[in-house]
Amino acid sequence: MQSRMATLEDVAREAGVSQQTVSRVLNKPDVVSERTRDKVILAMQALHYVPNRSAQLLAGKSAPLIGLITASLTLHAPSQIAAAIKNHAGAHQLEVAIAMPEVADYVSLQARLNEFRAQNIRGAIINLPLEANIAEKLASENTDICCLFLDISPETDVSCVRFDHLDGCGACIRHLWEMGHREFGLLAGPESSVSARMRLNSWRETLHRHGVSNAVTVFGDWSAASGWHNAFKLLHQYPKISAIVVANDQMALGVLSALAQLNRSGSRAVSVTGYDDTADSLYFQPPLTTVAQDFNKLGKRAVELLMKQMTDPQIRIRELLPTRLVIRQSTWPITGQTGNEQAQLITELKTLVEKL
């Protein structure tokens, strides 16, 4: 005879709290203290608690679900990865429940996992740049849900499949170095982003190997607008820059637009590299040299590895996917710049900065 499923009342009794508190942990965890929240989560795990709405789903004939917690789908990379995950999950008769928390902190992510638990979801792909301590805490405190992470630092002790940022970033720097560039500007993503910091550290590490320590760094927010503004900032701080290395293609588009406005062509041209190889980057003006990441392959492997992990929750999965440099017309060999041209550039920059 099948044992009775645990109820909200059972969880409350196990945790030593009220049923209302258990309900808050499931629906509004940010209003509950961390200590109480942890007690309730442990009680749910111990009792294998499945809320009533989950039982209703189980009684129906809908396809089994996996979860995806992702950054905003208005950004290119997350949207492409989500599409690939849904496509490959569908090939395995799996539906995908998508959550997009406004902030990537522990409380918000735990709330999303609680929502997945309520739908009887036992596997989740997490495509957010997370600090190691947050990812490790989520994995260790939700052992009933297999969590596979896509955007974490190499030292994080969780199951993951991710791209090799060091290889892609190093390829950008080596390509520019071979073309004679020695004066670099680095346009990184937000300082709060783990993936942005990994790319920046990889650029700096490769530059250091070549004896370069004076590269100027600014930080954007992944948007084309921030690329445009930061291009002026970089050139104003360091007019000798001959190459700008950018953390994603959308910001690189803004950089190219700013350079066009400054009429930086001929001997005054600045090389630009991006990251992601978005579908549009081929049609930028000029077409963008960038690092390609196979988002379709990432989505496919994420689904396959999560299914494997759900079959054997004890295994630890760690897989690194390659990147490749796609060379187009936004990078070219360095040419000399006369003193008059440098003086003209400084004057143009001062005029534009005053207008910003």
**In CATH terms, what is the architecture of the largest domain?**
3-Layer(aba) Sandwich
The main sheet comes to:
4 strands, parallel
> What order do the strands of the largest sheet run in, or round the barrel if closed?
2-1-3-4
Arithmetic mean of pLDDT? 87
Overall tally of domains: 2
Q: So how many helices?
A: 13
**Helices and strands: which structural class?**
alpha/beta
State the total count of DSSP E strands. Answer: 12
CATH class identity of the largest domain: Alpha Beta
What is the approximate shape? elongated
Oligomer: single chain
Element pattern in H and E? HHHHEHEHEHEEHEHEHEHEEHEEH
**The CATH topology of the largest domain is what?**
Rossmann fold
The radius of gyration computed from the alpha-carbon positions, rounded to a whole number of angstroms, is 24 Å
Give the full name of the CATH homologous superfamily of the largest domain.
Response regulator
β-strand percent reads: 5-15%
Give helix % range: 40-55%
Distance between the termini: 73 Å
Low-confidence stretches: 54-61, 337-342
Gist?
The chain has 356 residues and is α/β, with parallel strands linked by helices. It has 13 helices and twelve strands. The chain has a four-stranded parallel sheet with strand order 2-1-3-4, with helices on both faces.
